[in-house]
Amino acid sequence: MSFAQSLRQDADPIFEAIYLHPFVQGIAKGQLPPESLIHYVSQDTEYLNTYSKVYGMALSKAQTPDQMRLFYNRIGILLEGELIPHLNLCRVAGVTHDEVMQHPVELAPTAHHYARHMLCVAQQGTLGEIVAVVLPCQWVYVDTARRIIEEFQPTTEHPFYDWISFYASDEMHQGLMELTALLDHLAPGARELDLAMMRSAFLDSSRLEYQFFDMAFTLQKWTPSGPGAYPLGEKPDSDSFDSLSVRVNTCV
Ligand SMILES: Cc1ncc(CN)c(N)n1
Fold this sequence. Notes:
By secondary structure, the protein is mainly alpha-helical.
C-alpha cells in the first residue's frame, strides 16, 4: 500500500463520519437551511484564501519545475474554480454571492483553527508535510461528491448539482491524483519523524474537515462574543469598523 493510501486508510472513520454529517447529507438530499449555507460560504472564502497561500508556501519549497507547476495550477483552480460551488450554495440560500461578500467575516473558531493549523505546518514543515496538510481538503471533497453521485444519482434538477459535479469532476480527481503521487514520491526519502509529522498533519486536517461542516451546520461563533466580535451578516455600524476590518484581514 502506498504511503498516501495508508494515510487515507487511517482516516477512514473520519471520512465516513464526514459523509454521514448532516451538512453533507443535506447537500446530498438537497436540503439545508439558508443560514448554514451562508455561514459556510463566508467562512470558506476566508479558508480558501489561506489555503491558496499555503500552496504558495509549498511552491517556495518545491524541488522541481513540475512541482512548481502543480502548486501554481492548484492556486488558479482555488481562486477561480471554487467560485462555482459557492455560487451554487448562495443561489439555493436565496442570496447573491456579492451580498455574502459584502459583510466582513470574523473567522469562526473552527475556520480559525484550520487556517492556523495549515499555516503553521506550511511555515515549519517539510514539503511532504505541506502536501499532507492540504491533501484532505482535496480528498474529502472528491470522495464525498463521488459517493453522493453513486448513492443519489443527482440530475441537473438537484439543488446542489453544481457543487456535487464540480467536486466529482475529472479535473478535481486529477488534482487529487497529482497530490497523492507527489506525497508518495516524497515519502521514501523522508525520515521516520517526518513521516510521523505527515501522518499527524493529514489526520488533523481530516478532523478539521469534519469540524468545518459542523461549524457551518451549527452556525458556530465565538462565545462569549467580545469586543469587535459580531454575528455573521450584521455589519458593525460604529467607528470600530476600520480597525475590525484590519484585524479580520490579518486572519488570512
Ligand atoms: C474547508 C474546505 N475543505 C475543502 C474544500 C474543497 N477545496 C473547501 N472548499 N473547503
